[in-house]
Amino acid sequence: MEKNRVEAFSDGVIAIIITIMVLELKAPAHAQGFADLKELFPVFLSYVLSFTYVGIYWNNHHHMFHSTRQVTGGILWANLHLLFGLSLFPFTTAWVDANHLAPTPVAVYGLVLLTAAIAYYIFQHTIIRQQGSHSLLAQAIGRDWKGRLSPVCYFAAIPLAFVSVWISNALFIFVAILWLVPDRRIERMLCERAKG
Questions:
Q1: In contact, 123 and 82? CB cutoff 8 Å
Q2: What residues have CB less than 8 Å from 117, skipping those under 6 apart?
Q3: Which residues of the chain fall below pLDDT 70?
Q4: 60 vs 64: CA distance, rounded Å
Q5: pLDDT tens readout for residues 44-54
Q6: Neighbours of 89 (CB within 10 A)
Q7: Handedness of CA 125, 194, 63, 11 (dihedral sign)
Q8: pTM, whole model, 2 decimals?
Q9: What is the rounded distance in angstroms from the CA atom of residue 181 to the CA atom of residue 183?
Q10: In angstroms, rounded to a whole number, what is the distance separating the alpha carbons of residues 118 and 104?
Q11: What is the pLDDT of residues 67-95, one digit of tens each?
C-alpha cells in the first residue's frame, strides 16, 4: 500500500489538532493593554507546550515515514492509535488552562502524554516488525534511550501532580526539550543509504 495517503491523512489530522488548540486561546474582553494579557500568560504557556509536543510528534512521524517503504494494515492501525492519543491534547490542554494548573487536570495531561508515547512506541515497532530488524528504522533507532526515558518521566509526573504541579510540568518540559530536535539518527541513515 502507498504511504503517501497515510502521510497526507496524518498531516491533516495533526493540523486540525493544532487548530482546535489555538481556538481555545480566547482574547480577553475589554482588555487594551499588555498588563491585561498577564492573566493569559499561563494559558499561553500551556498552549506552547502542547503545540511543541504535537510538533515533535509530527516531525518524528514524518521522519519515520521517510524510512518506511510500504504500509500494512498493522501500520495503519498503529498510526490511528497514535493520532487518537494526539487528538486528546486539545481537551487536556483546555482543561489544564480552565482550572489553572490544578493537580487532577495536570495528572490527566500527563496520562495523555503517556498514552501518546506508548502509541508512538507501538507505531515505531509495528513499522520495524514489518520491515525487519535490519531495516533503516531499526538501525537508526538503536537502543532508543529517549524513547524509553520519556514514558518513565510521564509515568512519574502523573502521581507527582498531586504533590507539586510544578514538578510535573518540569518533567513535561524536560521531555519536550529532549525531543525538540528531530530524530537525526533517521536523517543520518537516509543520507548514508543515498551515498552508498
A1: yes
A2: 147, 150, 151, 154
A3: 1, 31, 182-185, 189-190, 193-194, 196
A4: 6
A5: 888 999 999 99
A6: 24
A7: negative
A8: 0.89
A9: 6
A10: 21
A11: 788 899 999 999 999 999 999 999 999 99
Note the pLDDT of residue 137.
Answer: 80
* The three three-digit cell numbers of residue 40, written as one number: 493569559
Would you say 78 and 123 are in contact if contact means Cβ atoms under 8 Å apart? yes
163-167 LR contacts (CB < 8 Å, sep 24+): 165/101, 165/102, 165/103, 165/106
3-state secondary structure the chain: CCCHHHHHHHHHHHHHHHHHHHHCCCCCCCCCCHHHHHHHHHHHHHHHHHHHHHHHHHHHHHHHHHCCCCCCHHHHHHHHHHHHHHHCHHHHHHHHHHCCCCHHHHHHHHHHHHHHHHHHHHHHHHHHHHHCCCCHHHHHHCCCHHHHHHHHHHHHHHHHCCCCHHHHHHHHHHHHHHHCCCCHHHHHHHHHHHHC
pLDDT attached to residue 117: 96
Q: Grid coordinates in use for 61?
A: 512521524
**Class of residue 41 by CB neighbours under 10 A (exposed 0-12, middle 13-18, buried 19+):** exposed
